Amino acid sequence: MAYSEKVLDHFKNPKNVGTLDKSSKAVGTGLVGAPECGDVMRLQIQVDAASGIIEDAKFKTFGCGSAIASSSLATEWLKGKSIDEALAIDNMTIVEELALPPVKIHCSVLAEDAIKGAIEDYKSKNA
Amino acid sequence: MGDKRLIYLDNNATTPTDPRVVDAMLPFFHNVPGNAASRNHPFGWAAEEAVDYARDQIAKLLDADSREIIFTSGATESDNLALKGVFEMYQRKGNHIITLKTEHKAVLDSCAKIEKMGGSVTYLDVDDKGLVNLIELEKAITDKTILISIMWANNETGVIQPMKEIGEICAKHGVLFMSDATQAVGKIKTHPKELGIHLMAFTAHKMYGPKGVGALYVNRKNPRVKVTAQLDGGGHERGMRSGTLNVPGIVGFGAAAEIARNEMDADAERLSKLRDKLENALHGAMEEVYTNGCKDHRMPHVCNVSFKHVEGEGLMMTFNQDIGVSSGSACTSASLEPSYVLIAYGLGDDLAHSSIRFSLGRFTTEQDIDDTIEMVTKGVNHMRNLSPIWEMYKEGVDLDAVVWSEH
């Protein structure tokens, strides 16, 4: 199976790889997937308390090229968005942007779940 | 496939056709166009003569009688013919077949079909090295058992089963012994008579011959084994396999067999050294690297390695512009199930997802291996830098205690 140019680009030069301080109140962490299933995504957001804007996002992913590209793309999209805007990111927009084939749609679902997980974690810390 | 030098380490999937084989085949497309079954003109005679010659070349490789070689379209057809053909032919004797969970799908799916046709099949476990338990095998035999089907060498790991001992058990109990020897023939010595094998499936394209032609060895004496034909037609191949013979393919198969007979020992010696170099270098360069399957009973050109906390298909993407290998990861399959072979060896799903199969071949060079070591090491390090579970592992997190969200 050949990958799209966009998947290859994110895979070779992933954006925003890294780790934020998960104990910080400003950071929300979403960890989804399982090693047994062949993919685990950890997506983190750092939110500016005053504006409510996501000022930084980082990821690490264990998985195939599409999983890595989906999470890399998600972090790019998250930066500069408000929490509500971030919640509106839909897995199908990731599918379209990366031209993922049907067998790889679960990678985009995982990315959406990771975004939602990170926001939930941030909200519970700041409730 | 432009000018860039590509490294092919997927010889268990298929081997490049040896140029000497191609040369042998070429006259049989146009210059010698006959049908080997045309018995009444020179075109047919020439084709038949070429097929007979190839049959002899193959029989010599197996130390068998040329009348014991039945040509087919490939190993999948040979497996189907052997299993279903024996099941139909020996129905009055019994309906029970014993095989392994680690067999190729051509065997497992034929067995599943046989179960639907009223047969009974026992699928035996293997140990953590991938080897059959001979005591369990013997215990599984009943008075209804007609056939034991055990592959010579596994396609994913190269693990070689104890064929001699299995043959002795079959002889003791009067059960037919069939082997899918696709990965072994032409690479190591495979003499069925010496080991009590009655049926043996193999194919040209795993031994530097062309795709689309295979064979089934059918033992001719003591006992005289018969299989019910699965294709109806002109009654070719002693009534066991109808269909016009693939003359150029068979000529190539024969040439490949003769080259293998002359060169396989030297190939095996050279390739096992290169394989060991690759395997040792990968183990030496990185931590948490595991070899899957028994290292003491293994094909000389194969190694199957897991790189913990790295997903196999993702890892392949780091170097698949340059190197062709296979992975036990299931990321491309809709089922999300990793290799059933490695799971049967007792590997966790995580390690199975992390596996890469390197299979070397006659045209693999030392430079290929040196480049592969460099690119794979770089790829594993890249993927581990991206891997949250590698980070957790390095921080000392007990990964088994983490509650994962299965999906």
Residues in helices of chain B, as a percent range? 25-40%
Question: Residue share in helices of chain A?
Answer: 40-55%
* Shape-level CATH architecture of the largest domain in chain B: 3-Layer(aba) Sandwich
Largest interface (CB < 8 Å): A-B, 32 and 31 residues
In N-to-C order, the SSE pattern of chain B is EHHEHEHEHEHEHEEHEEHEEHHEHH
Task: Indicate the radius of gyration of chain A in whole angstroms.
Answer: 14 Å
First-to-last CA distance of chain A: 45 Å
Oligomer: heterodimer
Strand content of chain A: 15-25%
Low-confidence sequence ranges of chain A = none
Could you give me the name of the CATH homologous superfamily of the largest domain in chain B? Answer: Type I PLP-dependent aspartate aminotransferase-like (Major domain)
Rg over alpha carbons of chain B? 22 Å
Number of helical segments of chain B?
A: 13
- Class based on secondary structure composition and strand pairing of chain A: alpha+beta
Task: Describe this protein with a few key phrases.
heterodimer; A: 127 residues; three-stranded antiparallel sheet; 5 helices; B: 407 residues; alpha/beta; Aspartate Aminotransferase, domain 1; Aspartate Aminotransferase, domain 2; four-stranded antiparallel sheet; 13 helices
Explain this structure.
The complex is a heterodimer of chains A (127) and B (407). Chain A is an alpha+beta fold. Helices cover 44% and strands 22% of the residues of chain A. Chain A has 5 helices and 3 strands. Chain A has helices at 5-12, 65-78, 83-87, 91-98, 105-125, and strands at 27-34, 39-48, 53-62. Chain A is globular. By secondary structure, chain B is α/β, with parallel strands linked by helices. Chain B has 2 domains: 7-11 and 264-394, Aspartate Aminotransferase, domain 1; 19-259, Type I PLP-dependent aspartate aminotransferase-like (Major domain) (Aspartate Aminotransferase, domain 2, 3-Layer(aba) Sandwich), CATH 3.40.640.10. In chain B, 40% of the residues lie in helices and 13% in strands. Chain B has helices at 19-25, 42-62, 75-89, 105-116, 134-140, 163-173, 192-195, 247-285, 312-319, 340-344, 349-353, 366-386, 388-394; strands at 7-8, 69-72, 96-100, 120-124, 145-149, 176-180, 199-203, 214-218, 289-291, 302-307, 323-324, 326-327, 355-359. In chain B, strands 2-8-7-6-5-3-4 form a 7-stranded mixed beta sheet, sandwiched between helices. In chain B, strands 9-10-13-12 form a 4-stranded antiparallel beta sheet. Chain B has a two-stranded parallel sheet with strand order 1-11. In chain B, helix 7 (192-195) links the parallel strand 6 and strand 7 (199-203). The longest helix of chain B is centred in the middle third of the chain and has 39 residues, at 247-285. Chain B starts with 6 loop residues before the first strand and ends in a 13-residue tail after the last helix.
